[in-house]
Design brief:
- The chain has 251 residues and is mainly alpha-helical.
- It has 8 helices and 4 strands.
- The longest helix has 40 residues.
- It is globular, with a radius of gyration of 23 Å.
- The N terminus is likely disordered.
Length: 251
């Protein structure tokens, strides 16, 4: 761990103080990133307010559950659109993009708030029955295979991936794992978005969500499929050009 030492003269005494440089660096992220975090926080609050308008008599738990769930899904999709956009307009996709990382952080925050609100709603201590059902013999549990049970279990797996990506979204993790390993772990985001969509669609089926939520989910799914397909095409085209250019230089 890296420290910086300050020497302070106070009342004719020399006092030394050590400060953790990693902690200082963690908060010293620059005004542009602080602006991004501020805008993403406002986006989260705006989403909660919209859900309050949609269901004005609902309690806070319901608002956080619904709002943070959809906000997290929107931000996960948005994080997957940034890379292809960079390939399209800048012809490159760096390992680490501050905006993509910050969007991922707020996707994780909203996802965790969504899960916490769901679990807190289970005031009778029967959280386990969101995911499991007792065996007929009365000993042990089986996975709950109803649409709600499947959705909850997929959501639980998605939550673990979200937490992993949230933990990795800092300079310390990037330096520790280096570029390629860090990027490999970040690719769990692709599995995350699939799990998040299945979780959302299953809940829409038995939760009788309004048509607006269904349309929003469909638009997000089409957007991520089209943009990711375009990004895949651009990446392979650029790789092929680089390979041909290298071959010509060797000749």
């Amino acid at each position: 761990m890296t420290y910086i030492r300050y020497i302070i003269i106070s009342n004719n005494h020399i006092v030394t103080k050590d400060y953790d440089m990693e902690l200082i660096t963690f908060f010293n992220i620059g005004w542009q990133r602080w602006r991004s975090h501020g805008l993403l926080a406002l986006f989260t609050l705006a989403g909660c307010y919209i859900i309050h308008l949609y269901s004005p008599y609902a309690d806070l738990n319901y608002i956080i559950t619904l709002a943070c769930g959809y906000i997290s899904l929107i931000l996960i999709v948005f994080s997957l659109l940034i890379g292809p956009y960079k390939l399209l307009y800048l012809r490159k996709n760096p390992v680490n993009l501050d905006l993509r990382r910050d969007v991922g952080i707020w996707a994780g925050i909203n996802g965790c708030l969504h899960v916490a609100a769901v679990l807190l709603a289970r005031t009778r201590g029967d959280v386990i029955f969101l995911f499991l059902r007792p065996k007929p013999q009365g000993v042990g549990y089986d996975l709950l295979m109803s649409p709600q049970g499947i959705s909850n279990n997929l959501g639980l797996v998605a939550t673990f991936i979200l937490i992993l990506l949230l933990v990795l979204s800092n300079d310390i993790s990037l330096k520790y794992f280096k570029g390629k390993r860090w990027k490999f772990l970040q690719r769990f985001n692709y599995g995350l978005v699939v799990l998040a969509f299945i979780h959302t669609v299953l809940y829409q089926r038995f939760g009788n969500r309004a048509r607006g939520f269904v349309i929003l989910t469909l638009v997000l799914a089409v957007a991520v499929l089209v943009i990711q397909a375009a990004g895949f095409f651009l990446y392979n085209r650029n790789a092929s050009r680089m390979k041909n250019h290298h071959r010509v230089r060797q000749q």
